[in-house]
Design goal:
By secondary structure, this protein is an alpha/beta fold. It has one domain: Response regulator (Rossmann fold, 3-Layer(aba) Sandwich). It is 42% helix and 14% strand. It contains 6 helices and 4 strands. It has a 4-stranded parallel sheet, with helices on both faces. The longest helix is centred in the last third of the chain and has 22 residues. The radius of gyration is 14 Å and the shape is globular. The relative contact order is 0.21.
Length: 154
């Protein structure tokens, strides 16, 4: 069976989307689904290309026992639409940018992360807020909802 492939997307790929990538990986491991779901993350901008995960995200993830070692920022490409089953943005700007790049999302693959948790709002960017705890809580809620969505589909 072909694994489900998920790409988390934010503006720079150094705070929210890598946080979601590694939180989701952790949840998948704990639920023994890591072999049937693959996750990655990317940016809509090129500002942070090649940079490591922001120290605030690294610290927050480390505080809950999750490593993001080795992750560096990359930008989404048109090819990602074919390569991934779900492309999940952290806020409406990310979703708009993806829809623009992906010819308006003809297959309905682009979603907002918190939509999986029943919320229609963005995940605040800790680059601006400085509140990595609040971002983590939202990311965890979104990823937990996404996990339930994936389990229901299985």
């Amino acid at each position: 069976m072909k694994p489900t492939k998920i790409l988390f997307v934010c503006h720079g790929n150094i705070c929210r989307s890598p946080m979601a990538e590694f939180v989701m990986r952790d949840l998948l491991e704990k639920h023994e689904l890591a072999d049937v779901v693959e996750v990655a993350s990317a940016a809509t901008s090129s500002e942070e290309l090649g940079n490591p995960v922001h120290q605030g995200t690294r610290r927050k993830l480390a505080s809950v026992g999750i490593s993001c070692a080795g992750k560096t920022a990359r930008r989404i490409t048109p090819r990602d639409y074919a390569d991934f089953d779900l492309l999940i943005g952290m806020d409406e700007a990310n979703v708009r940018n993806m829809r623009r790049l992906f010819a308006d999302d003809p297959e309905g693959k682009v979603r907002l992360l918190l939509s999986f948790a029943g919320a229609d709002r963005p995940i605040a960017d800790p680059w601006y807020t400085g509140d990595f705890d609040a971002t983590y809580r939202d990311v965890l809620a979104g990823c937990t909802g996404l996990l339930k969505y994936l389990e229901a589909k299985a």
